[in-house]
Amino acid sequence: MRSMLSPKKRRGLTFAALSAVSMLMLSGCGSQIAVLHPEGPVAQKEFNLIVWSFVLMAFVGIVVFGLFAYMLIKYRASRPGIEKTYDPNIEGNTKLEVTWTVIPVLIVIALAIPTVQTTYALKDPPASAHDPIEVDVTSADWKWIFQYPAQHIETVNYLVIPAGVPVKFMLTSVGPMNTFWVPELGGMEFTMPGADLGLWLEADKPGVYLGRGANFSGKGFAHMQFNVYSKTQTQFNQWVSTVKSKYPALTMNEATYLVKHQGLSPIMTFSSYPAASVAQNQNTQMGM
After folding, report:
1. Could you read off the pLDDT of 221-263 as tens digits, one per residue?
2. Three-state SS at 123
3. How high is the mean pLDDT of the chain?
4. By CB neighbour count within 10 A (0-12 exposed, 13-18 middle, 19+ buried), where does 26 fall?
5. Residue 263 near residue 219 (C-beta atoms within 8 A)
6. Could you give the CA distance from residue 156 to residue 25 in angstroms, rounded to a whole number?
7. Which of 80, 82, 189, 286 is the most buried (most CB within 10 A)?
């Protein structure tokens, strides 16, 4: 049976359907894009850089497509007298050559200056009235190990931090390299065997944020995720006290098994850990 819709209406409905599908895909079925929802000062600076880059590139795109449309209309073949005014030979045109050389240089400079400024600004901890804390992070096959040197406690596959307090993460790896990333709190940094790389992050308020490994590290890579629980300072102190009083200490044998065992580990909590646990297993992995 022939459709009652005209070809024009069918094309309109097809375009509308495709637009709806595209919008659904771009929206992620209602899920938010984490990097576009900063929840800390580090993430906010990086978000501002993303916005600036997007605005600049959008401006460039608008100008390019505007010029493209202008040329199509002005030099169309059907325009009366176009044969007499159109000259495709622009070789040796100094003004045009300077223009299309200078403009890309200016665009690169406009992107480079804020990028370099933001990169160097994030090397230092965010401004805060609170003293920063340190968390030592180790990626292993396939788990995340978090040690709190000042509190001398350890967690596996989850992280607790105080809100409004800068956190310095010292990152290393036992086994393959990976990437430590909490998108809503800031950018990522590598974890590599035998190296200690630093990263500053901070959460503005209490909440739960998803962290993940962003560097393919084997068959367990998909499970290299962890939750970051941001609590008030009082709640964080209470959590530390609870860990110290109710959870077991980590023995050296257990620590060795934890970092060497190539398998998934459940969420774990320890009231203390051997001081040389990670360093010793790093040296063992590297054959030192």
Report:
1. 888 899 999 999 999 999 999 999 999 999 999 998 888 887 7
2. coil
3. 84
4. exposed
5. no
6. 34
7. 189
Q: 133-285 belongs to which CATH class?
A: mainly beta
The residue behind tokens 């200056």 is: 113
- The tally of CA atoms less than 13 A away on the side-chain side of residue 115 is 9
What is the pLDDT at residue 277? 66
**Domain ranges, ordered by start, for the chain:** 41-121, 133-285
Q: For residue 55, what are the contacts with CB-CB under 8 A and spacing of at least 6?
A: none
- Which residues, in sequence order, are CB contacts of 35 under 8 Å at separation 6+? 43, 46, 47, 50, 183, 184
Which residue, among 122, 172, 183, 132, has the nearest Cα to 280 in the 3D structure? Answer: 172
Residues 6 or more apart whose Cβ sits within 8 Å of residue 69: none
User: Does 142 sit behind a cis peptide bond, omega within 30 degrees of 0 on the bond before it?
Assistant: yes
For helices 277-285 and 252-260, angle between their N-to-C axes, nearest 10 degrees? 40
**Amino acid residing at 113:** I
Do residues 177 and 197 touch, judged by C-beta distance below 8 A? no
Contact present, 135 and 155 (Cβ < 8 Å): no
End-to-end CA distance of the chain: give it in Å, rounded: 78
Q: What angle do CA 86, 87, 91 make, to 5 degrees?
A: 155
Q: How far apart are CA 83 and CA 264, in angstroms?
A: 72
Tokens 């045109």: give the residue.
93
Q: Is 218 left (phi over 0), alpha (psi -120 to 50) or beta?
A: left
- pLDDT of 2 over the 50 cut: no
